[in-house]
Write a structure and sequence with these properties.
This protein has 225 residues and is of the alpha/beta class. It is built from nine helices and ten strands.
Length: 225
């Protein structure tokens, strides 16, 4: 939120000191007052070489996100999964090898999802409740396996196109299109995405939006529980 979020409180305090305003006994925190809605920031394909930098930037700018991890990456980088959780992020399932699941047998889909559930849990990321199918491709077979593991399928409302070499400006502009409850697709690995984080925070603050968690019940972004 930065200094701007505190200006109204500072002004109010000055008026109170001058005897022209009475502050309530329990003024709400500036950050809470600034949230008129929540959006879901999501980052696919990690954890990997860019994860630490991404997490540091998200923390620095007060953002939380859902990290849809690829199972084989989680198994290879358990410390980074733990770092995601320590940084206040939520961890979701993004399949084990990132295949086109709609072209696979039910047994293969089951293996892709179940192995990722186990890899993330083993790495200290908890048992995911959210699943994002690779490429956003889904069908009745994929949905049946998701249901077996108690997973809610999460696609997206806005695609940042960062996977398609979108510029930092374009990624920030995509975030600017989000409205309350919506989810944006971003990725763990593009340098332009990491560079966009400070401006993503500014863009959301200017709209009164905060980064929230994705509800397993509704699939929409809500206030962090």
């Amino acid at each position: 939120m930065g200094a701007r979020a505190h200006l109204p409180l500072l002004a109010a305090a000055a008026l109170a000191a001058a005897g022209t305003l009475t502050l309530p006994a329990s003024a709400a925190p500036a950050q809470a007052a600034a949230c008129s809605g929540y959006v879901g920031l999501t980052f696919d394909d990690g954890p990997g070489s860019g994860t630490t930098t991404l997490l540091n930037s998200l923390k620095q700018y007060g953002l939380r996100a859902t990290m849809f991890n690829v199972g084989q990456n989680a198994a290879a980088n358990p410390a980074l999964v733990r770092a995601q959780v320590s940084a206040g992020m939520w961890v979701g399932n993004h399949s084990y090898t990132h295949p086109h699941l709609t072209q696979q047998s039910q047994a293969t889909v089951d293996s892709e999802i179940s192995r990722t559930q186990q890899a993330i849990a083993n790495a200290g990321g908890g048992t995911p409740r959210l699943f994002r199918p690779p490429y956003g491709e889904t069908n009745s077979t994929v949905k049946a396996v998701e249901a077996k593991y108690g997973l809610t399928e999460i696609i997206w409302n806005v695609d940042s196109q960062d996977w398609n070499n979108a510029s930092t400006d374009a990624i920030v502009a995509a975030v600017g299109r989000l409205t309350n409850g919506q989810v944006i697709l971003m990725h763990d690995w593009p340098a332009n995405t990491r560079a966009a984080i400070p401006r993503i925070a500014q863009t959301l603050a200017a709209k009164g939006l905060c980064s929230g968690m994705i509800s397993p019940q509704t699939g929409r972004a809500v206030a962090p529980g």
